[in-house]
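just leaving the lab so this will be short. what follows is a protein written twice so to speak, once as letters and once as structure tokens for the fold. can you read through it and tell me how you think this chain folds. thanks a lot i owe you, the record is right below.

___
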Amino acid sequence: MSYTTECIAEALKAAREAKGLSQRDLSSRAGVPQSHISKIESGAVDLRLSSLISLARVLDLELALVPRKIMPAVRSIVRSGAQERAAADPRAHSVIKEIRNVAELVINSSGEPLGEKEADALRHNLFLLPQVGLSSAQLTSLKSAMQAMKLYLDHPENKGLIREAADTIRELRNQLVHAREPQADFVRPAYSLDAEDDDG
């Protein structure tokens, strides 16, 4: 599967999950077999234009051919919109609020599973999460980390659970922060935008 096809497949899957649709739901609405949707999302089949149009229509997406030199701006707008939608998701807000409370219980527990620096890092990473968007997969990862913390509170002898949870949260925070940084290969000097119109 080419990089472009892979990006399209990932975007379709993310849009489906953001709308809370199962593959079966999307299949019934778009008229595309569920098995075909599964193959598209896993990259096991080439995506036909007719299928792409049907899926995009149901997922409130638009297809457009965009000049390559303005793609950095388009990607930035799409990324910002996705982050704003995810940040506004009340599920993400409630999970982040709950995991902060659980983390404080863990940090202040008598077992002291984290040193002062580690506790501060955990608080800092959790503080940064609401400022960026969370995908469904990232939200699931966050919930898993929270479950590990809750399990530790019931079984304080298992300090490894807290290490795993703290590592998961740190990795998640790093993914989100790096996703927001502009990519070096997208940076172009402003004066070059008008200078590249010559196609020969």
In short: The chain has two domains: 3-63, 84-180. Residues 53 and 63 are 7 Å apart (CA to CA). Residues 160-180 form the longest helix (21 residues).
